[in-house]
Design a protein that fits this description.
2 domains; Rossmann fold; binds adenosine-5'-diphosphate; alpha/beta; about 500 residues; 6-stranded parallel β-sheet; 9-stranded mixed β-sheet
Amino acid sequence: MKIVFCASEGVPFSKTGGLADVVGALPQALAANGHEVQVILPRYKATKPAKVHPNGRSVTLALSGSFRYANVQDAGESGGVRTYLVDLPQYFDREGLYTVNGKDHPDNHLRFAAFSLACIEFLKRSGTAPDILHCHDWQSALLPVYLKSLYRGDDFYSKTGVVFTIHNIGYQGLFPPSILPEISVDSSLYTMEGLEFWGKVNLLKGGLVYSDYITTVSRKYAEEIQTAEFGYGLEGILAKRADRLQGILNGVDYDVWSPANDKHIAAKYGPQDLAGKQACKKALLQAMGAASPVLDRPVIGIVSRFAAQKGFDLIAGIAEQLMAMDLYIVALGTGEPQFEELFRTMAAKYPDKFLVRVGFDVALSHQIEAGSDMFLMPSRYEPCGLNQIYSLKYGTVPVVRATGGLDDTIEPFGGKTGTGFKFSDYTPEALLGAIEQAVACYRQPKAWRQVMINGMKKDFSWSNSAKQYIKVYQAARKTKSELKAASAASNA
Ligand code: ADP
């Protein structure tokens, strides 16, 4: 099959979160199964200069009643996957992928409408229609909308199956209805069955309504988003399309995220030889400015977007109790000002135990994985979560809330089996209870080694999940050919 990913971020070209890791790794796993896979991303200011190959193309986009020109650059092939970058400096050559100084770019609707149209036009000009277009989150949700409206009668895409993946339903791309003419969407789509959502245009909803199949990034999250607690208002449409919705767990690229290969860490290690982990712990504490690091004190790592979703109000509720315990917190993150403030305040108050870096730092994120003893993810909701899965491979024991992918990937440690510590109630007390349990286990070296090794032996590589995606792609293609055959028969 020819499979094309259209997404707003992807490693190594751009990244704010887990979506980028998925878009960086899943296409390669699909290519390894013999498929032709391409990725199309915007070219941002932060996108490192890639060697541009000659077979790029320029495309014309009709938006807001005028024309825009985008240059779609060929950024070369890696792991059997060719990447194209949509170069539209007016929209993408600026600070921040989606936000700047904590605020959304005011023209995000135009930026991602232009990106979506550029993908569609570029593929048309390339000559061979994809068998599958795989879109991700609200930023590329307009592709299925355009294919069902502007490009409805276009034979080129008549056999292309469209798969849409929800990486986080909390971000929906909500805009006032006045944007519709600006993004070339006909007002006839602004209905309850279409893009309308409580008086606003909901782009994510467009992806859910107009795609052939919908996936999300864990089995549990696929169930959760069909409920009012987790669906953020879209539970109804998802329940209606439940026969087209599937949860497929994200995998891990172990070439990048494994202590045996990691190029960012102080010493390599594996389950047979854990000495390197102590070296990583020492290096991490030193790098974070701990005065005379105490190596037998547990280090609890955090690497996260600082967003309410991630459970920081729970951490705020027990921060003082944590500092009364014999442990380090090492945190890296950036995001909402109130949480940056929380971490800065705690770091200023406890400079030897609460070690914080506010910012986005890929090398440090790897060093925290390797140098911590435990990894904390007390999320209110978590579609999949990648850091807890990375942590397993690094022997860094996850302490997580039992939700979404966290629940699917971490088994509670029970003395012999299990890989981490889980709590269910979204309360500071429940979180503290899980941390106390983990710290008590850390004080029993034999049990601790067992839980570490159990996690390190787990395999969450992409190959298994890639096979599940291929089945969804095949189903989407089948739907499309059946539809085409039915429409040919009715026209005959
Ligand atoms: P989400 O996509 O909700 O942010 P995930 O756990 O799925 O959460 O993925 C987060 C990814 O982003 C991980 O690869 C993590 O290491 C990375 N990440 C998050 N915050 C930072 C940061 N401040 N610096 C470097 N990497 C980060």
